[in-house]
TrEMBL record:
GO terms for molecular function: DNA binding; DNA-binding transcription factor activity. Keywords: DNA-binding, Transcription, Transcription regulation. This is Transcriptional regulator, LysR family. The lineage of its organism: Bacteria, Pseudomonadati, Bacteroidota, Flavobacteriia, Flavobacteriales. It comes from the Bacteria. It comes from Flagellimonas pacifica.
């Protein structure tokens, strides 16, 4: 009997690939476990390729299965987004731009872009999600985001990256710390303090840049705490659990017992960049990028 690959095969495959457990995948799909096993075997027969390695203890993906998992995630995400775009267009909109961002981008770049979009393209819907650099890159590749705002020096092949905002760094100190802007001569003055930094996994470029700022001051900082949220970092500083270095724009919008000293004389700068996939087919994306990069 001749069979053809159907959408249900991809859905069933992805459920097993994510769970790596037939019973759990079947429960997730609301079908029987034997029925699911039959569908996966049928799929492997049609493709003439083994997708899973099965034994009594575990299920794992073959190299072909790993490749197919990434492709199916992209296909299903794209289908979902196509349906969403169609619904928006049917309701009188001109589609949607899905934007990922780091918290610091919300201080100036993202709000300005949203206002410009609303003014020039009022029928384009926008959605926002705060994510780490790594999560944004992954989401853009999987067609879950159209545009991201990251702090990265480079991105993988297939993506485009453009700097959109250059910021200075600022030192964050407890309100009663015995050092102010007038008495500040250099970062070496805080070399004995504990430092609170954004997690290296959240933003590797930021982490490495802060380390280089300290190293230029003649010391390696003792990092006592890490976080992915500016508010958490400020709260730790407020409670005298350490000091921090942050992009200057992040100081606005928080009401805490901390003070800031801008590091104007150092060479390092906090660069925020826009990133998107070169072959993204969302017709509204180019208009968004043109607004973002306009002179």
């Amino acid at each position: 009997m001749n069979y053809q690959i159907e959408l249900r095969h991809f859905i069933y495959f992805l459920a097993v690939a994510e769970e790596l457990h037939y019973r759990k995948a079947a429960e997730k799909l609301f079908i029987s476990q034997p029925g699911l096993s039959t569908q996966i075997k049928q799929m492997e027969e049609i493709l003439q390729t083994q997708l899973f390695v099965r034994d009594k203890k575990k299920v794992s993906l073959t190299p072909a299965g790993e490749f197919l998992k990434g492709e199916v995630e992209f296909i299903l995400n794209h289908l979902e987004q196509t349906q969403k775009q169609l619904k928006l267009i049917g309701d009188g909109h001109s589609g949607e731009i899905r934007i990922g961002f780091l918290g610091s981008a919300m201080q100036n770049v993202v709000p300005k872009l949203l206002l410009d979009m609303k003014k020039k393209y009022p029928l384009v819907h926008t959605s926002l999600e705060e994510l780490s650099n790594k999560a944004q890159i992954s989401a853009i590749f999987r067609d879950k985001l159209d545009l991201g705002f990251v702090r990265l020096a480079r991105v993988p092949k297939g993506l485009k990256i453009k700097p959109v905002f250059e910021d200075t760094f600022s030192l964050v100190l407890p309100k009663d710390y015995p050092l102010d802007e007038k008495g500040f001569k250099g970062i070496h003055q805080v070399s004995q303090d504990d430092f609170i930094l954004f997690s290296q996994d959240y933003s590797p470029l930021y982490y490495d840049t802060v380390m280089s700022i300290c190293e230029d001051g003649g010391f390696t900082p003792n990092v006592s705490h890490k976080s992915v949220h500016a508010q958490t970092i400020f709260k730790l500083v407020e409670n005298n659990l350490g000091i921090a270095i942050i992009p200057t724009a992040l100081q606005y919008g928080f009401q805490m017992e901390v003070k800031f000293i801008e590091l104007k004389k150092i060479k390092q700068r906090a660069i925020l960049s826009a990133v998107w996939k070169e072959d993204n087919r969302n017709p509204a994306l180019q208009n968004c990028i043109d607004l973002l990069l306009k002179e």
